[in-house]
Amino acid sequence: MNALEVKQLIKCFNKKEVVRGISFSVEEGELIALLGPSGCGKTTTLRTIAGLETPDDGEIWIEGELASHGRKALISQKHRHIGMVFQDLALWPHMTVYENIEFGLKANGLILAERRKKIEAVLHKVNMQKYAKEYPGKLSGGQQQLIAIARAIVTEPRLLLMDEPLSGIDVKLREDIRQEIKRIQQETQITTVYVTHDQEDAFLLANKIAVMNAGMIEQTGSPEEIYSSPASLFVAGFVGEANIMQVKTAGKDRVLTPWGELVYNTKGREGKNAYLFFRPHHAIIDNSGHCYGTIIHRDFIAGMYKYRVSTSGIEFKLQDQTKRDTGEPVKFSIRKMEILFF
Question: Quick one: what percent of the chain has pLDDT higher than 90?
């Protein structure tokens, strides 16, 4: 059984559709990332699932129960039993770590002994036992993040919703907290919807990714599928670094590229636009290569030179470990490229 199903969800603000008929499902114990640029409808989708926003149309099912149908809420926000980690964390500064985590348990009517047992267990789960009596202001950003997660999961919710939880954390700490989130999610097997614009977050945490753009889902699949087989021009350009250039078909199973004709299966794709697609690391500077170009730009990042190369009237990106000068002519080859039809 799916822990969550969203069917043809629509949400409008000021008569403008912000979420435009999206559908996706999440299996029990799975973490799905809603990945996309700012303003694409990710957070609105999350808030609608939580019951914090009223959808204009569509259905939301939680563990087989219909939570909302159109504008009608069949399960209230309070009774959806959802844990949320907000972008701003929303920890109460006047309460200790222990009291922050205890708040939801008190609201659910648990007795003192049960509350203590659950709080001790969840603090152990997030490796924050020794900070129980501290106030949030005394903790680092990463530690606060772990407390926010502990507070969200201590009530054992049916779903955990996380809205850009790492956006305010520096890069090095972000890597550490990301690993902690992954460990906690895998150990608890709590079904999670994780909203992010950061591709590393999505690829390193998620079992499944839904790429969103302008209120719609462009593609849903595993991280490998999203990266290797983009289903739209937007996904091809948004996910990872890529070289994308429109090319022409020259009859059956023939495609014209900037470097000559390529044999490629065109059956059933007649009338669609064809695009040559390859990643920068698939192109290599190679003295035995059959393609020629000129280096027009060079960057050095993390032990690798990133070049922009001009060839046959176009520009593309490639990577190489050898330092070369701007203006230098080079031979190159492309080890792997695809023709995508959209």
Answer: 80
pLDDT for 134 equals 96
Question: What is the reported pLDDT for 198?
Answer: 94
Which residues lie closer than 8 Å to 289 by C-beta, 6 or more apart?
331, 332, 333
pLDDT at 168: 77
* Predicted pLDDT at 271: 75
Specify whether the CB–CB gap between 291 and 311 falls below 8 A.
yes
Residue 332 pLDDT class (50, 70, 90 cuts): very high
Q: How far apart are the first and last CA of the chain?
A: 33
Contacts of 156 (CB under 8 A, 6+ apart): none
Band of residue 265 on the pLDDT scale cut at 50, 70, 90: confident
CA distance 305 to 164: 31
pTM given for the model = 0.91
CA–CA dist 178, 97 (Å, integer) = 21
Give the tens place of pLDDT for each residue, 151-180: 999 999 999 999 999 887 887 888 889 999
CB 32 within 8 A of CB 209: yes
CB 67 within 8 A of CB 60: yes
SS3 per-residue string spanning the chain: CEEEEEEEEEEEECCEEEEEEEEEEEECCCEEEEECCCCCCHHHHHHHHHCCCCCCEEEEEECCEEEEECCEECCCCHHHCEEEECCCCCCCCCCCHHHHHHHHHHHCCCCHHHHHHHHHHHHHHCCCHHHCCCCHHHCCHHHHHHHHHHHHHCCCCCEEEEECCCCCCCHHHHHHHHHHHHHHHHHHCCCEEEEECCHHHHHHHCCEEEEEECCEEEEEECHHHHHHCCCCHHHHHHCCCCEEEEEEECCCCEEEECCEEEECCCCCCCCCCEEEEECHHHEEECCCCCEEEEEEEEEEECCEEEEEEEECCEEEEEEECCCCCCCCEEEEEECCCEEEEC
